[in-house]
Amino acid sequence: MSQPSDRPIVRLRPKAEARALRHGFPWVYADELVTDRRTKALAPGTVARLEDAERRPLGTVAVNPASKIIARMLDRDAEAGIGVDWLKVKIDRALSLRARLYETPFYRLVHAEADGLPGVVIDRFGPAAVIQPNAAWAELQFDALAAALVEVTGVETVIKNGTGRARALEGLAEETRLVQGALDGPVPVPMNGATYMADLMGGQKTGLFYDQRPNQAFAARLAPAGRVLDVFSHVGGFALAALAGGAAHALAVDSSAPALELAQAGAAASGVAGRFDTRKADAFAAMETLAAEGALFDLVVCDPPAFAPNKAALEAGLRAYERVARLAAHLVAPGGYLVVCSCSHAADLTRFRAASARGIGRAGRRGQILFTGFAGPDHPVLPQLAESGYLKAVAFRLSP
Ligand code: SAH
Description:
Elements: E1 9-11, H1 18-22, E2 27-29, H2 37-40, E3 46-51, E4 57-63, E5 69-75, H3 84-101, E6 106-111, E7 120-125, E8 128-133, H4 136-140, H5 142-153, E9 157-162, H6 165-169, E10 175-180, E11 187-191, E12 194-198, H7 213-220, E13 227-231, H8 237-244, E14 249-254, H9 257-270, E15 276-280, H10 283-292, E16 297-302, H11 314-329, E17 332-342, H12 349-362, E18 367-373, E19 392-398
Parallel strand pairs: 1-3, 8-9, 13-14, 13-16, 14-15, 16-17
Antiparallel strand pairs: 2-5, 3-4, 4-5, 6-7, 7-8, 9-10, 11-12, 17-19, 18-19
Helix pairs in contact: 3-5, 7-8, 10-11, 11-12
This protein binds S-adenosyl-L-homocysteine.
Protein name: 23S rRNA (Cytosine1962-C5)-methyltransferase
Family: Belongs to the methyltransferase superfamily. RlmI family.
Domain RlmI-like PUA: 10-76
């Protein structure tokens, strides 16, 4: 628990822009803060009082001298006490939004900065929850965070998932462990009319990609009684939703055998296993093979991992998105549908859409855009932080 009286003070440099912070921007970059010896010596995650160059208070921040984001705004009140009670208020606010939006307790409960808990991601799976403490302060206060989560939500099982790129940028080591309760294999998750199986301990990210929910729901409407190809399927996100929506058949392609096993288990749990197949393969190779076999689908969905995770990777990433769209367009039956997705921060919607359209054109096809989707409302976006709007899904109808 950090009380205002025993807190160090950190100060913006004279030229640093305090207005953005006052208007809700949640970060201070390392070159904006006076980094004297005392500030540099603060332990990563220390809670401090932030002042502008004229010593006016800006708020309560978490400092990490080892990170480019040297301070993250925790509270605009410079006198806020940061502990279990404060965490409970934030989690309760996040919970009330999800409780309004969803009928069952399966959702992203906390989406970091946009939910007022910088760097903290919490996905809820009914009576279980997975916490990703991706900032040093959350690592330091992890026990309080888990306690607040249990008190507010009543979850019985808590998992700490300390994987992911963001932790390395904060100087944090990888660690995944069961913190509380028990876990008896993969957890069934009802979503989009299907049942998905999520591996909360050993799976990718927290076990399931909740962010695609609205886009899976839209795509499912495009293929009633049709043939579906779900490329980069993970546990069958798009395929199982489409099958639950009445698709005749779906083929899921992924390079991860464990993900495809979970997809099969999900298909069985959804009662659609007889209409579902998987293929473990590199997606690019698999799409070429399918084209060589003359396969055609009424709906093809491609949801690859982030090909442009940062600005340096942008050009190569856009070429990869173009290639995905080109290979996929060859597999779309005349008048069929193609849904392409990107979860790259660096590739914005305009660039991603242009790259996808180029790929479709190079496949000798034309299209109309039906739908542009983003992450669902359990992934709120802070208007000051464009980066938090990372996911794009664009649905095309291709020419006959
Ligand atoms: N569409 C999924 C999420 C996909 S995440 C959903 O709706 O839930 C991206 C997936 O791509 C991961 O499952 C990963 O295993 C897979 N993947 C990454 N590189 C791949 C490659 N070269 N070929 C096939 N699959 C790949």
